[in-house]
Design brief:
Order of helices and strands: HHHHH
Shape: flat
Radius of gyration: 25 Å
Distance between the termini: 63 Å
Helix content: over 70%
Oligomer: single chain
Structural class: mainly alpha
Length: 145
């Protein structure tokens, strides 16, 4: 391997992940520090503000169970259709040209099979989650109404 390629691989596989983890950790630390400063300011002023309730309002609302399940359904459909689409394209290509190269089939299978697997896993997770979390979804809908 050439020196430039080695440096590039080192940068991509070592330095980049370290930088990403450092940025995420710094963001979380800054958020925690801001919350602590707000709490200290409220305590210093002897305000009667309920800090727990204040921080609950300050946090971004989490998506509902139904929204999270629908996201899983969306991702499952996208990945499954992408993986199946590769095989359909291979079949059409084979019918039109009458020659499908084995290397091309194997190469595209390395993309299609994991995509199908991830898509089917998301779909299974959606259907199982919908069945298991049915009562929680109904309770959440009652609380929002």
């Amino acid at each position: 391997m050439k020196f430039g390629e080695t440096i590039l691989m080192f940068g991509i596989f070592v330095v980049l992940p370290i930088i990403i983890v450092a940025i995420v950790a710094r963001t979380k630390t800054n958020a925690t520090n801001k919350r602590a400063q707000i709490a200290l300011a409220a305590i210093e002023k002897n305000s009667d503000v309920d800090l727990e309730e204040f921080f609950k309002k300050m946090n971004q609302p989490r998506p509902s169970i139904k929204e999270r399940l629908l996201d899983k359904l969306l991702y499952g459909c996208i990945f499954t259709l992408f993986g199946a689409g590769i095989y359909v394209a291979l079949a059409m290509f084979g019918l039109v040209i009458d020659e499908v190269n084995a290397d091309m089939f194997i190469g595209l299978s390395f993309v299609a099979v994991p995509s199908l697997g991830v898509g089917l896993a998301f779909l299974i997770n959606y259907f199982v989650g919908r069945k298991v979390l049915k009562q929680e979804i109904e309770a959440e809908a009652r609380n929002q109404a």
